[in-house]
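Our platform keeps sequence and structure together, in a single record for each protein. Because each token names a local backbone shape, the row as a whole describes the fold. One such record is reproduced below, unchanged from the form in which we store it:
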Amino acid sequence: MDIIDRRPSFQKILIELSNNAKDILKEHGK
């Protein structure tokens, strides 16, 4: 049950991490 519930949230976490990585790269580019 927990695994099924975590799948959509896990995808959201991956998206948030990718967005955060982009922001970090932008700051390092400065």
